[in-house]
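Blinded run. Sample ID left blank on purpose so nobody reads anything into the name before looking at the predicted structure. Input follows.
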Amino acid sequence: MKESLPACRNIIKLLRIGDVIQGSPAIIVFLSTHAYNYPETIIIYGTVYAQQIRHGSAREADILRIRILGASGSEVADRRAPAFLVDGESLLDAGTIGLSLKIREEQKIRRIILTHAHFDHIKGIPFMLDNLVTRGTANTITVISGRDVIRDLKTNIFNNKIWPDFTKIPTPDRPVLRYRTASASREERFNGYNLVMIRVNHTVPAYGIILTNPKGKKIAYTGDTGPTDRFWKKVDEYRVKHLIVESSFPNRLEDLALKTGHLTPALLKKELAKMGNPPPKIYLMHAKPQYFPEIEQEIQGIARGTIRYLRQEEVLTI
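Blinded prediction complete.
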């Protein structure tokens, strides 16, 4: 949106990015530097910048709103695994859910779109399903992914050994979990959104995602990938302006990155060059925490100021 961001001064209260300001059709999109971060809340002393939103709803304001629950390549005390909450009701990957959301926020989720079945991208799902059943919410979560990813979940996670088969709980007629198989050869639609899944190059079956909201706003997300080709062709074809892409290891560990199906800043530069018109907004995720300062410095050497890592709990508005 092009409107200027009005400043709300002298606020001293508990707030979170994404909260709707009471009594005002505005949503918090940026916090001043005088903020202290805690796992669940942010205490603001000073300035909160808010973006005007009609009726306080991201959907009604014709924007695509993406809250970064986690974007790390591993989990440590202050870094969560990848999970991106779209418009409050859809997740792109699910490395963290219950540790990031309030109960009422968790209960609003209706679907999870998975890029692949590695643990750091699905870790939040088992506990979320357990929470919904024990609270008696009657929610059903639809997990959307490729046939091979769905098969991995059924066989290796929700198999009544590692975790219950929630497609039959609380009852087979009204389960908390359903699967929806997406094909890489066709577009999927749900609730006015358009979903395209494209195979990428990882150590297990994996897909990149292009998601378009009812008003045509798009986000492309690679998930985990090494060097790939088809995904970039689709990003070009769909004229995507916002991209979330991985960069997991520093350049000196390129051999390890390639072996494990990931990218370094140098490899990322080559990947972006495969597009005729790279997205003007590029956000990075999945850096291994112990290498983050080194990777971030190398990224600045590629494109200073135009590519950056996502910050946990920030909100992208498209």
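Unblinding after everyone has recorded impressions. Helices lie at 103-106, 119-122, 124-135, 147-156, 230-237, 254-259, 265-272, 292-302.
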